[in-house]
Amino acid sequence: MTGFPEHLLREDLRDFTGYSSARTSAPGTATPARIWLNANESGHPSSVDVDGTSRRYPDPQPSALVDAFADLWATTPDRVVVGRGSDEMIELLVRALCRPGGDGVVVTPPTFGMYAVSARLHGSPVVDVPQVDDGLTWRIDTEAVAAAAVSAGARLVFLASPGNPTASVVPLRQVSDLAERLSDRAVVVVDEAYGEFASQRSAVTLLEEHPNLVVLRTLSKAHGLAGLRVGLALVHPDLAVVLRRVQAPYPVPVPVTELALRALTPEALEATRQRVGGTLRLRDRAVRALRDLDGVRAIYASEANFLLVRCDDADRLLDVLTADGIVVRDMRHLPGLDDALRITIGTDLEMTALDRALGDPS
Ligand SMILES: *Cc1c(COP(=O)(O)O)cnc(C)c1O
């Protein structure tokens, strides 16, 4: 396997080994450890946790969960880093690759706000390379992204595919092209938070080919577990080691690991696929209803569980929906989207309520 381009890592952290927790520093003696008195945990379970499941600090990277994700993505456990949602993965990437106050981060607006938030909190300059709006979908300008990354000396490029709020995918050959062009310059991150809804296969299939490629996935969207806070990065094994070092100790609580593992059983995954199918059908239905509505200017093609809609009078539409207790996301604060709303595809009942509120008598 080609190595990860080491010079992309923060110079000042190259010899940093991170916090050595009671779980990371197990003794290497011949006699198996049987009495654990090294972490100042209670010797007794809590009265609210009678079987003591949560008595001890968890494994920083719970191996059963890491293995389950590796299986799901047909990759090896050494490429998996799990944590508190993809949000934490974004933060770890910025932390591991950008010198504070130094190396920049390229984002492609309109896009997910957390990339710029993490960069700013770290003191990293954010370089915007706007997407091209062709009226039905949004497109990344590969040429411009590569040029901006090089001229800004950026260490990270964030792409969301399917994008939020664009709902468009970045074609895999474009991801591959960008990773190739920036192979010794920057890490290219493909955030696939909505990957389960997309028709294109995952960029995970390109990881072997591109050491500087990272794919983010989450249990927050299609899996229906946003409150669990579990996300993961699929990365080059050398980068995985570094990300784990800069991560806070014990990021995945014991009850969270248990529920996440249950979400990854074949039965639960099949149920998730069924739900995704239902969401796609409701999305098509919502498109048909909105298309016929007066004042709707454009509905972007969606590869996700939401629709990005432009309207003549967003205030009026918002008023109508609010009066019915229906909340959608106002996107008008984003550049180029001063007439746009983002509508999540909910349950059948919720979507019927939306149709009714919008004046569909059916
Ligand atoms: C919702 C969303 C996420 C999810 O973040 P989590 O921290 O995993 O909940 C990540 N990226 C994008 C583009 C999103 O829209």
UniProtKB/TrEMBL annotation:
Put simply, this protein is called Histidinol-phosphate aminotransferase
GO biological process, alphabetically ordered: L-histidine biosynthetic process
What keywords is this UniProt entry annotated with?
Amino-acid biosynthesis, Aminotransferase, Histidine biosynthesis, Pyridoxal phosphate, Transferase
Q: Which organism is it from?
A: Ornithinimicrobium cerasi
Q: Name one Pfam family in it.
A: Aminotran_1_2
Catalytic activity reads:
L-histidinol phosphate + 2-oxoglutarate = 3-(imidazol-4-yl)-2-oxopropyl phosphate + L-glutamate
Which cofactor(s) are needed, names only? pyridoxal 5'-phosphate
- Region feature (Disordered): 40-59
The UniProt record lists the EC number as 2.6.1.9
List, in alphabetical order, the Gene Ontology terms for molecular function in this entry. histidinol-phosphate transaminase activity; pyridoxal phosphate binding
